[in-house]
Design brief:
The complex is a heterodimer of chains A (640) and B (246).
Chain A (H helix, E strand, L loop, with lengths): L3 H4 L4 E5 L10 H12 L5 E8 L6 E4 L2 E7 L3 E2 L2 E2 L4 H9 L4 E6 L2 H8 L8 E5 L10 H14 L2 E4 L2 H6 L1 H4 L5 E3 L16 H4 L5 E5 L8 H7 L6 E5 L5 H11 L5 E5 L3 H10 L2 E3 L11 H8 L4 E4 L5 H4 L6 E4 L4 H12 L2 H18 L2 H17 L9 H5 L1 H20 L8 H20 L4 H31 L1 H6 L5 H18 L1 H10 L4 H31 L3 H15 L14 H5 L1 H15 L4 H24 L3 H4 L1
Parallel strand pairs in A: 1-2, 1-7, 2-4, 7-8, 8-9, 9-10, 11-12, 11-14, 12-13, 14-15, 15-16
Antiparallel strand pairs in A: 3-4, 5-6
Helix pairs in contact in A: 3-4, 4-5, 9-10, 9-14, 12-15, 18-22, 19-20, 20-22, 20-23, 20-24, 20-25, 22-24, 24-27, 24-28, 27-28
Chain B lengths: L2 E12 L8 H10 L7 E13 L3 E5 L6 H9 L6 E7 L2 E4 L12 H11 L6 H11 L15 H12 L6 E5 L7 H17 L2 E5 L3 H7 L2 E6 L2 E6 L7 H9 L1
Parallel strand pairs in B: 3-7, 3-8, 5-6, 6-7
Antiparallel strand pairs in B: 1-2, 1-4, 8-9
Helix pairs in contact in B: 3-5, 4-5
The chains are: A alpha/beta (640), B alpha/beta (246).
Amino acid sequence: MIPAHQSARRPSVLHIFKVYYPDLFGGTLSVIRDICASLKDIFSAGVLVCSRTGGKSRIVINDVAVERVRSFGDVLSLPAAPTYPLRLWRRIAEHDLLALHAPFPLADLVFAFGLGRNRPLVVHWHADIVSHAALRPFVEPLMRRTLQRAQAIIVSDAVLVENTPLLREFADKCHTVPFGIDVSKYNLPAPRPDRVNARGRLVLACGRLVPYKGFDVLVRAAVDRSFEVWIVGEGRERLRLEELIKSLGVQDRVRLLGSVPESERVKLMCIADVFVMPSVSNAETFGLVQLEAMAAGRPVVNTSLDTAVPQVARHGIEAVTVPPGDPEKLGEAIDSLIADPERRRRMGEAARQRATTEYSTAAFSKGIETVYREAAAAPAPTVRASRAAAIGWPHTIQIAAALAWSDMRHRYVRSLLGPFWMSIQMAIMVAVLGSVIGHFSNASAVARLPMLALSLTAWTFLNSVVLDATTALQNSASLIKDRALPPVIFLLQCVFRQGLFALHNACVPLILWLFLVPKDFGGAVAALPGLAVFIVCTVGLGLVLGAMATRFRDLKPIIESGLTLAFLSSPIIWSPEMINQASTVMRLNPLTHLFAIWREPLATGHVAMPSVAYVLAGLIVLAIASTVTVARLRKAAFWI
Amino acid sequence: MASITLRDICLDYPLYGAYDFSLKRRLLGRLAGAAAPIQTIRAIDNISIEASAGARIGLAGPNGSGKSTLLRLIAGVYPATSGHVEITGNIMPLLGLNAGVNMDFVAADNISLLLRISGRKPTPALIDEIWAFTELEERMQRLPLRMFSSGMLMRVLFATATAFPADILLLDEWLSVVDENFSAKAEQRLLKLVSQAAIVIIASHDHELLRRTCTSIVNLDRGRIVNTVFPDTRPPYPVELREKRA
């Protein structure tokens, strides 16, 4: 998005937010625009946002390259842009620094998965998630991971860190950089009061027409008063506000002006008598628009939120602060200011003074620049919770496979019969069991041999993975403790090792099948998904039971006897006609279904749906248990 | 750039097996209102250490003062109970040479397995290079380790473990090889490894050794830092080692 020749000299910053000009106007957007403009000599900037309008995807606004990802409308105040995370991931590598303007859970998703870890990240904390509080439990872990990974967090006022529990956890990373305002823009020739607004009772409010701005409170406050209210801004609350104005009968004094160009807004700010910011929730963290009013030398009426709002314009000095959502108090405060021109003038002067000294654009861009520079200079963090995270999954699996391969070769060391003594052992077992079962049943024993051999191979795999896993961690204690290898390697090693042994054993059923059964490749293909699920379940069982047996030592004998019992009570060596398939023990036994999902298609060609449902439910439980286990394995060094 | 930051680290070591934590005991204990037995000991108590590239840190202290536990915590074996751990750079923990050795395998297979465990791809050239360092006969590569004397075994393991430099080197005691002819060579290789690593942390009872090799010595006692000493004059250590041996 930034041409290469431009980014060659200056480090480039990618601003990540949900929306940008020209799709919307608002406080956060003007902050991003100001950052891009004021740092343009030091950092080249790019913006990646969502857009509903579906215009050109790459546009240039104020010399800043803006890339817009198609969104299909807003869901819960979030743009529904399914491709945004992917696009963001691909863009990350092209920039030297990432600036995330929070809250934006769509981007948190990317960072929570650890993508883009090699680029420094700065989070601009604009607001907490207030409007959809029910979503918090789901979004907060994502936001926490983003903040954990960030080099720095920028807030507009220190009070936000104190009042936001999530930010308090990362207080050492937070930098307070108050927004800045260019006071000179408001140096209009002072309009003569008698000419423009002789009555001295014009109340102005600005902002998107969204619920948290509290414009309905302002409309209610105007009832039975004499002042006039102009509200600048557009948004989804417009219809509701129009109805409210009509129903309260104040349409002669309350006007919704809609969107107004910035130059016009400056003029309006300069002719207003009182500026009101009636916001009702902590989503209003700073109130950039009240800072504009202060720059225009207007007295402010704001609300006592837990955010920076009452800190920017302070009660009794630059503002009158009233409780949020109280029309009566708000109306009184406005009336008291309207009635006292001298107090209005005093407050307005104090406000302009404060905007000039405390909230200068120079200090703002200097502050942002310092944080950006430090973040860009800092090495990408490799904070690791565990060695497993440091080594990474591909490497973990590689080591486990190498260990398993060497285990298998160890089987051949000093062997008399060579590689296939295992297969011979399996062949003997199948022959003996087959002939014994042949006596119980009147069906042809020979025809059943391939299925018997395959079932025994599968069972041997499951049985030995689980048994092996119960002792794997203890046997590898020295590698875990002295070479700091992640414990999960050794559980995977069991799976791989037994998988290799199972391949040896599988020769027996394969040969029997080739010789004894009419070829039905359709059934074999239909059995493959079931077989895959069987293997995944075995891996899960090995992980979970292996870890638990290491932690609680009495589990090992319980698991051993449990496996024997399971072998006898499942249709592994028994053929369907020898047992009552409908008996309660058979129906509840998960192994019955775990075998049925691949044996049924192989034998009959059709899939047993109840078994599939049963196994998939079990698979979900196992997946959750395995995830918990892998997290718990961080502590495995204590257990051995 | 390698760095280690430990801030207010505590580690509570759970005492499995030292007390009865069975369900039976828990239920009965709850009914009888008995106090829960002590289930953890604090192995590391509020330790903060900062190390950047060039740091040579010695850990000293009596047995059970938490030296090895601290090394394992840095290596990522034990998760800290509380506090902040931040480590940049790849870690080579040399806490015991015997880990991962299979006595029934031939020497060359053991070497390649150990290389794989530390994330290297074993090539014949690499194995030959390691073997050359051990100064053992070429044909012994094909013998199982079972048949090696303990001195020969140490040579093979030492040569394999120290074949690659690391950003962060963790040593639990100086890896000493007691073979008269080999030890000088081993010492030199280890010193080279130490000089190549960005950060070295050595736990040892040998104060002389720590003073020779370290820029700072942290004295531990019962999991706490007692004091930190900075040995002031540091003559180039290879010279001193040779003098000592002479």
